[in-house]
């Protein structure tokens, strides 16, 4: 359960700002943005708390204000496959609400998370009222479908080393002339392995090979990409 749940009207101005930061909602009119904000309930979570559970009825859509969460599918033997990692200004839970189905993944906080919840029935009511909001929601769902198509390709058609290369390049940032991928406190080898659809030992060996070949350098708080071209080539394997 969330550690905080306040009336939607108590933080209206903050909710309105949060709507404006959501990519697919940023161009909505002031009227639509305000209508959304009036339905938003602030909720916060600590690291490890479950926000929504795979198989439970999809009752809420969530907007992330700050912090990282992970979405996973769990096999009968307890193994986890990470579906996605989400952070500030992302949306989740809408696929369950709009399909009137259960949540397809379990989403839990990786660190302290501030978010907003919108009751599914309220959001559907707004979608029926505002065509622009309906289109924005469709665009977000379309983007999510394309993400899953890419995930299927990665898991089914790419080797582990290719998946590593592809993921690192997608999340690399240019800082002080170096191409780096930040490693947060929760970015353990186990988390990375779950994300890549492999196990810790295989991931560790693959990273060590890339480091030995001078393609990247592993550091405590980041991964430095030393040879982006070679890493790109590995990502196509």
Q: Can you offer a commentary on this structure?
A:
The chain has 237 residues and is α+β, with helices and mostly antiparallel strands. It has 2 domains: 8-156, Jelly Rolls, CATH 2.60.120; 158-235, Orthogonal Bundle (Arc Repressor Mutant, subunit A). It is built from 9 helices and 12 strands. The chain has helices at residues 12-21, 30-37, 94-99, 120-129, 131-157, 160-170, 189-196, 200-212, 228-235, and strands at residues 40-45, 50-52, 60-66, 69-74, 80-86, 91-92, 106-109, 113-119, 173-175, 178-182, 216-218, 222-225. The strands form 3 sheets. Strands 1-8-3-6 form a 4-stranded antiparallel β-sheet. It has a 4-stranded antiparallel β-sheet with strand order 2-7-4-5. Helix 1 (12-21) crosses helix 2 and helix 7 (189-196) packs across helix 8. The longest helix has 27 residues, at 131-157. Mean pLDDT is 90; it is low at 1-9.
What structural keywords apply?
alpha+beta; Arc Repressor Mutant, subunit A; 43% helix; 237 residues; elongated; 4-stranded antiparallel sheet; Jelly Rolls
Q: Helices, strands, pairings?
A:
Layout: H1 12-21, H2 30-37, E1 40-45, E2 50-52, E3 60-66, E4 69-74, E5 80-86, E6 91-92, H3 94-99, E7 106-109, E8 113-119, H4 120-129, H5 131-157, H6 160-170, E9 173-175, E10 178-182, H7 189-196, H8 200-212, E11 216-218, E12 222-225, H9 228-235
Helix pairs in contact: 1-2, 4-5, 6-9, 7-8
